[in-house]
């Protein structure tokens, strides 16, 4: 006689401890769960709305400077420390977790133009408009002792920027010439000059460490190899470039911040044209810095905003601003890829989140899982109109909206002019003449949206008129 017995494993439905979640049996057969996509779409809309609710990027400010914050430098080994230099010659060392100034140095007479750490972070260099380079120890003076530099180098030219080699004991400065210095010498070991204009920014490549890039007063970007005796290449822009930053993950990619309100990403191997033109700012871009991942960068502008761009994106994904913040002079992205720092004209440094809706602090496993699930939903439905509209909306000041509208009108006009001139379309009285003997009335041609035309489709649409 056969007897069928129901056998169950208690581990499948009984909790191990009273703190565990009750297990709920589920059948994942899609035939039993219709309308899965509409439910996920609703969840995606709710997720993107909640992201807007929790988007509070501003963390705090660091006040204490008495003049414009001109430059900043991150510590190479410590996430909690950062240096800032002001227009009155004062350099401050900040403790970010406590948001306090732990050390203040009267370093220069006049503006502090640049700060850089050595690779180990044991000391740092400053340069100013007083034609002096000073080396300072990270260990402050003892009780009752005065702050004195470890080393001082005098020059005949006013320095505009300084940057340290990523591996050895050399650093570079720029003024009327680009000079490469050894830490143990009082004279430059190598000097470069191309033309008579001053060089305003200089940066070492973090991967190809012998490669230097600088921006000059004559609107040019110049490449240097410190192993050679002459500059490598030069490309000239339409307007002056204010800052330059190398991609830390791709040795040949760099981005420059320009006076024409745009940022330009270049491939150092092909300098004939930029790989991407980043358009979102409505005033001159003052500084730029890459994230440690090399996938994004942050820029600060004369329009009093910070913007975050993806490397291959034409427009910014995020914009940060406050009522009190003035012209942003310098920006930095923290080494842990979670925070941004900005220094502006009203003598303050500000600390921001790199992702506006990210939660600071510990999260439970269920919370992390829910966040990942919502991110996947937003990615899946990113191109749906309602989700896209909510995700793209950013509240910006009225002055920026007005400037953006004006720039849109200007670009639209330039595009129409280019189409008319390039394809030989001319206005004459109330008609458009497209080469004799074809004549088309303006009212008929106005049905074509010139702003959205491409070269390949223009002939087809114009040909359809006749």
From TrEMBL:
Give an example GO cellular component term for this record: small-subunit processome
Query: Which GO terms fall under biological process for this protein?
Result: maturation of SSU-rRNA from tricistronic rRNA transcript (SSU-rRNA, 5.8S rRNA, LSU-rRNA); protein ubiquitination
The domain of life for this entry's organism is: Eukaryota
Among Gene3D superfamilies, the record links this protein to: YVTN repeat-like/Quinoprotein amine dehydrogenase
Report the locations given in the UniProt record: Nucleus, Nucleolus
Please state what the protein is called: DDB1- and CUL4-associated factor 13
Q: Where are the WD repeats?
A: 62-104, 105-139, 278-309, 328-362
Q: Where do the Sof1-like protein domain residues begin and end? A: 354-417
Instruction: Identify the InterPro entries for this entry.
Output: Sof1, WD40/YVTN_repeat-like_dom_sf, WD40_repeat_CS, WD40_repeat_dom_sf, WD40_rpt, WD_repeat_DCAF13/WDSOF1
PANTHER family annotated for this entry?
Answer: DDB1- AND CUL4-ASSOCIATED FACTOR 13, U3 SMALL NUCLEOLAR RNA U3 SNORNA ASSOCIATED PROTEIN
Q: What is the scientific name of the source organism?
A: Capitella teleta (Polychaete worm)
| Family from the record | Belongs to the WD repeat DCAF13/WDSOF1 family.
Record keywords, A-Z: Nucleus, Repeat, Ribonucleoprotein, WD repeat
């Amino acid at each position: 006689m056969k007897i069928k017995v129901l056998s169950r494993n208690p581990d499948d439905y009984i909790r191990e401890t009273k703190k565990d979640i009750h297990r709920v049996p589920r059948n994942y057969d899609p035939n039993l769960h219709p309308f899965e996509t509409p439910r996920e779409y609703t969840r995606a809309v709710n997720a993107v709305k909640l992201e807007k609710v929790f988007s509070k990027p501003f963390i705090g400010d660091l006040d204490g400077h008495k003049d414009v914050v001109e430059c900043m430098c991150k510590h190479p080994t410590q996430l909690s420390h950062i240096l800032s230099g002001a227009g009155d010659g004062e350099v401050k060392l900040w403790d970010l977790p406590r948001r306090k100034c732990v050390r203040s140095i009267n370093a220069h007479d006049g503006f502090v133009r640049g700060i850089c750490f050595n690779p180990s972070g044991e000391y740092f260099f400053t340069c100013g408009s007083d034609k002096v380079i000073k080396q300072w120890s990270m260990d402050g003076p003892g009780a009752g002792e005065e702050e004195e530099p470890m080393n001082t180098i005098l020059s005949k030219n006013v320095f505009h920027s300084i940057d340290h080699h990523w591996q050895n004991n050399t650093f570079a400065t720029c003024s009327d010439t680009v000079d490469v210095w050894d830490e143990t010498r009082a004279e430059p070991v190598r000097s470069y000059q191309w033309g008579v204009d001053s060089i305003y920014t200089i940066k070492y490549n973090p991967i190809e460490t012998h490669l230097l890039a600088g921006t000059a007063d004559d609107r040019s970007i110049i490449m240097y190899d410190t192993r050679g005796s002459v500059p490598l290449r030069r490309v000239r822009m339409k307007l002056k470039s204010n800052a330059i930053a190398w991609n830390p993950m791709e040795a040949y990619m760099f981005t420059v911040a320009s006076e024409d309100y745009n940022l330009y990403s270049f491939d150092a191997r092909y300098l004939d044209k930029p790989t991407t033109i980043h358009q979102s700012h409505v005033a001159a871009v003052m500084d730029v810095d890459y994230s440690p991942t090399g996938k994004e960068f942050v820029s600060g502008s004369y329009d009093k905003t910070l913007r975050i761009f993806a490397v291959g994106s034409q427009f910014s994904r995020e914009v940060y601003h406050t009522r009190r913040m003035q012209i942003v002079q310098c920006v930095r992205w923290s080494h842990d890829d979670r925070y941004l720092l900005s220094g502006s004209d009203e003598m303050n440094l500000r600390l921001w989140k790199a992702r506006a809706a990210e939660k600071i602090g510990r999260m439970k496993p269920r919370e992390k899982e829910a966040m990942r699930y919502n991110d996947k939903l937003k990615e899946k439905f990113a191109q749906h109109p309602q989700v896209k509209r909510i995700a793209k909306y950013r509240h910006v000041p009225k002055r920026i909206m007005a400037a953006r509208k004006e720039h849109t009108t200007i670009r639209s006009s330039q595009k129409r002019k280019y189409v008319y001139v390039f394809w030989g379309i001319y206005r004459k009285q109330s008609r458009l003449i497209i080469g004799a003997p074809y004549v088309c009335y303006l009212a008929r041609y106005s049905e074509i949206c010139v702003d959205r035309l491409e070269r390949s489709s223009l002939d087809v649409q114009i040909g359809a008129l006749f």
